[in-house]
Amino acid sequence: MKAAREFYRKVVPASWLNPRAGFTAAVLAMLALVPLYAAATGDPFALTLFTRVLILALAAVSLNLIMGYGGMVSFGHAAYLGIGGYAVGILWKEGFASGFLQWPAAIAISALFALVVGLLSLRTRGVYFIMITLAFAQMVYYVAQGLDRYGGDDGLTIGQRSSFAGIVDIGNNTLFYYLCFALLLGSVYLVSRLVNSRFGMVIQGCRSNERRMRAIGFATFRYRLVCFVIAGALCGLAGALLAEHTNFISPAIMYWTRSGDLMVMVILGGLGSLFGPVIGAVTYLLLEEALSRVTEYSGLVIGPALLLVAIYLRGGIEGLFAGGRHDR
Amino acid sequence: MTERLLEVRGLTKRFGGVIAADAIGLDIARGEFHAVIGPNGAGKTTLIGLLAGEIAPQGGSIRFDGNDITGLSVDRRSRRGIARSFQITSLFSDFTALDNVALAVQAHRGHSFRFWQDARREAQLREPALAALASVGLTARADMRVDRLSHGEHRQLEIAIALATRPQLLLLDEPMAGLGPEESARMVEMLRKLKGAVTVLLIEHDMETVFALADYVTVLVYGRVIASGDPAAIRADRAVQEAYLGEQETSAHG
């Protein structure tokens, strides 16, 4: 790890801001160029794969807000993907095709669900919190399975992408890709403002030492609850995007393993680092894709890899490039 | 008559069969430096927990600044003006020293549902925080992460955080715990400067410190107040000598 850092320092000119920024910039540049690559090679698969990467990265960014910065280890984050997705699917099925209705609904219902889950779970700690968030997500999963009108277990095929009244046509895959990219960057910027604001200092203080936070005068519960709701809303947007992307929604999107995937992305990239979840999502999904071509048992590789990150790379992949600085 | 800031009546707390606070009565005047002493297990830290609001009593009342605060939560009592330090250092170890103190300032400057402006650039948070750091002599450590500071510096930071909430009543739980002689002397000097400026309730093992600083001393044994008075009276009290001072002599060698 140290050797890797040294190597990186030698290869990258000192005039670059710092290794971390350089690495992040390289990943973002790659993401920005994907549609050009897809157009040049005439291979639409790359565009499909990376659109998915961007959307799940957005979900991971939202999970990182509560888990990485707030220390709230939610094991039910995929529920918001499902709720956001079903909001789009159900509204379409009922004849409301406008994205101006679908997307705000996806965000608002996710926020409301987060409010309920947060009210009931945030007074618990550790394993109990993990189990309650998991239980709520599984509950939504089974409810979705029972929605016969909307395909039940088989899911619902959505006939068209949301319409935005001629302002943008997200039926164009390249355009949709860049919209997802912009929303991802926007959400990272939002989180960067949040975590450095007064609100963010309180959230991080609660992760660090909640008892002391109360002793110095903070009513911690309400701040953590608001943070939990913001993250839920953001992930609901990711869910809406995912439904748009695949024109399909099914309960599988919020199965508990999907929540686990999101956690892996966040940890892999680096807990509590701004671009960590993006890097984690890119790494994880590309690894999964590559491995699925050679073996059915991709978990056999990803599992041990995660173990190594957890043991040796506490700052995740992003932390590898952090140099000597230990800011968070 | 000096004005009473804190009035404790009949404060009682049992943990199972153990009585940690047995109908404790206590008065602290504004500006007073009040020490609570007692042997190990006397219920001193429990008393701080009760006063700070972390522990709910089974009986009795606490009046602070003229109001009954017996049922108030920890954070509300803090906002009313009661601050505490912890015997076992309790800091935000992955923050810088300055961020630690600035957070305490922030808790008392309006609400924190401000989502956009960089809190580290708010002069109204940073300046009082720097002043609090300066008052405990930690200015040079402001930008250092807390987990890199020494134990002595942690103890100083404990006080700075409590002071940054601008308390009316400061509860200090053995601020000298684990300090070497030199660091202890510096801490005593610091506490001496606080004297008069803020009302203090100090829990302390070291008798020299207590007798040097306190205006008034309460002696606690098995959760019960066995004596209270000015330092000279306490020194002369027979019951205190038997229950506490004798034990202190032997335990100092043991």
In the sheet with the most strands of chain B, the strands line up as 6-7-8-3-9-10
Strand content bin of chain B:
15-25%
Main sheet record of chain A? 2 strands, antiparallel
Number of strands of chain B: 10
Distance between the first and last residues' Cα of chain B: 44 Å
Give the low-pLDDT segments of chain A. Answer: 12-16, 324-328
Strand content of chain A: under 5%
Question: Roughly what percent helix of chain A?
Answer: over 70%
Number of helices of chain A: 13
Principal-axis shape of chain B equals globular
Radius of gyration of chain A: 20 Å
Estimated structural class of chain A:
mainly alpha
Gyration radius over CA of chain B: 18 Å
Distance between the termini of chain A: 19 Å
The largest beta-sheet of chain A arranges its strands as 1-2
Largest interface: pair, residues per side: A-B, 27 and 39 residues
Structure description:
The complex is a heterodimer of chains A (328) and B (254). With 328 residues, chain A is mainly α. Chain A is 73% helix and 1% strand. Chain A has helices at residues 2-11, 19-41, 44-69, 78-93, 99-121, 126-145, 173-196, 198-215, 220-246, 256-269, 276-294, 299-312, 316-320, and strands spanning 156-157, 248-249. In chain A, strands 1-2 form a two-stranded antiparallel ribbon. By secondary structure, chain B is an alpha/beta fold. Helix content of chain B is 38%, strand content 24%. Chain B has helices at 44-52, 74-80, 97-106, 123-135, 151-164, 181-194, 207-213, 231-236, 238-253; strands spanning 4-15, 18-29, 33-37, 59-64, 67-68, 82-84, 169-173, 199-203, 216-221, 224-229. In chain B, strand 1 (4-15) and strand 2 (18-29) form a beta hairpin. The longest helix of chain B has 16 residues, at 238-253. Chain B is globular. Mean pLDDT of chain B is 92; it is low at 250-254. Classes of the chains: A mainly alpha (328), B alpha/beta (254). The A-B interface holds A 193-194, 196-202, 204-205, 208-209, 211-220, 223, 226, 326, 328 and B 52, 54, 73-76, 78-79, 83-84, 86, 90-95, 99, 102-104, 106-108, 112-120, 122, 145, 161-162, 164-165.
